[in-house]
Design a protein that fits this description.
Helix content is 45%, strand content 19%. It is built from 11 helices and 10 strands. It has helices at residues 2-31, 48-64, 79-86, 101-108, 144-153, 169-180, 193-201, 212-220, 269-283, 286-294, 304-325, and strands spanning 37-41, 68-72, 94-98, 120-136, 159-163, 186-190, 207-211, 224-229, 256-264, 298-299. The longest helix is centred in the N-terminal third of the chain and has 30 residues, at 2-31.
């Protein structure tokens, strides 16, 4: 009888504790936020992540009723800022704004201070855009197939610009393309796209894969020759440029770039949902939809669970690319 009563009492206590915890979490979300929120950008000012973070911070301030500020913590190929957020209190007051770089770094670097899956709660993926393979205007190739053949006939001769630095998404798209086609290129890392394109126009580098919106002005002026887009279908901006898959090579090559926001692991689900709802409200405005359309960006605004699936998929994808290309930056 005592054992049975003891078990009943334990069950009542556990149930009560669980109920109290649930109420506390709900109250935390109801009262959130009560002080300023910081969005950490792990790169310097002026890039896509920084610009989007500042636009959304202003709008989130109106929606959430507390100041939302942006703090740049650049360095270490984005590891410093990303690691800082991973080790921040899981209370919804420190967020990370980043790109697919978060899913790449653990595969190519040692001692990464975070795990892209276990260290964060995905909040929302704002948008996606696609990479376009472009070459200098006088390179003697006009299609992806011709590019691959040229690379095979001239091993290592193609100087491929890895904008965003070695290990960045643009560099990794190039590694993926060359690894899967058994070709070689010499990768040249650049911190900024403008510097890379200046060298391409000067003939110091031959090719790169960068976002459609970034490449558009260079293509329109004839400085860059577009070969293919790493998307599932052609873009409105360049309807005559085929996808990589259409060219008959790499049917699964999908050069996706995105900007998304994360909270530290352990942040209460209700707070994550409240943040997600606020971001999606901004994303749904006519003003934001028009801005993204102009920049060739595809609005996403997915749920935290959906964004988590994207992250998990890309972590596995880049592990496979890194293993095949035998890449290491340490």
């Amino acid at each position: 009888m005592r054992d049975k009563m003891g078990k009943v009492l334990i069950g009542v206590v556990v149930s009560a504790a669980t109920s109290v915890a649930a109420i506390q979490v709900a109250q935390a979300a109801d009262n959130y936020p009560q002080r300023p929120i910081t969005i950490v950008v792990p790169t310097g000012p002026g890039g896509a992540v920084d610009i989007n973070s500042r636009i959304y911070a202003a709008k989130l301030t109106e929606i959430l009723g507390q100041p939302v500020v942006v703090e740049n913590r650049a360095g270490g190929g984005s590891l410093i800022g990303t690691g800082y957020v991973a080790n921040s209190a899981p209370d919804g007051y420190t967020l990370l704004a980043t790109t697919p770089t978060i899913t790449i770094a653990p595969s190519i670097r040692d001692n990464v201070p975070y795990d892209p899956i276990d260290s964060f709660e995905p909040v929302v993926q704002l948008y996606s855009t696609y990479g376009l393979l472009g070459v200098r205007s006088d390179l003697p190739v006009d299609t992806v197939n011709e590019y691959i053949e040229y690379a095979r006939e001239n091993p290592g001769a193609i100087r491929f610009a890895g904008t965003g630095g070695l290990g960045g998404i643009n560099h990794m798209w190039g590694e993926w393309l060359h690894a899967e086609t058994d070709t070689e290129a010499t990768f040249v890392g650049y911190q900024g796209g403008a510097e890379a394109m200046g060298d391409m126009m000067a003939g110091r580098v031959d090719a790169t894969i960068a976002s459609v919106s970034f490449m558009q002005p260079y293509i329109e002026t004839g400085s860059v020759k577009p070969l293919a887009i790493g998307a599932e279908e052609r873009t409105e901006a360049f309807p005559d440029v085929p996808t990589v898959a259409e060219s008959g090579v790499l049917p699964e090559f999908n050069a996706v770039y995105w900007v998304g926001f994360f909270a530290p692991a352990g942040t209460p689900a209700d707070i994550v949902e409240k943040l997600n709802d606020a971001f999606v409200q901004v994303l749904a405005t006519d003003e934001e939809q028009a801005r993204m359309a102009e920049l060739q960006q595809i609005p996403v605004g997915n749920t935290p669970a959906e964004f988590a699936e994207v992250v998990q998929q890309e972590v596995q994808q880049w592990k496979q690319v890194v293993e095949k290309a035998d890449i290491s930056l340490d």
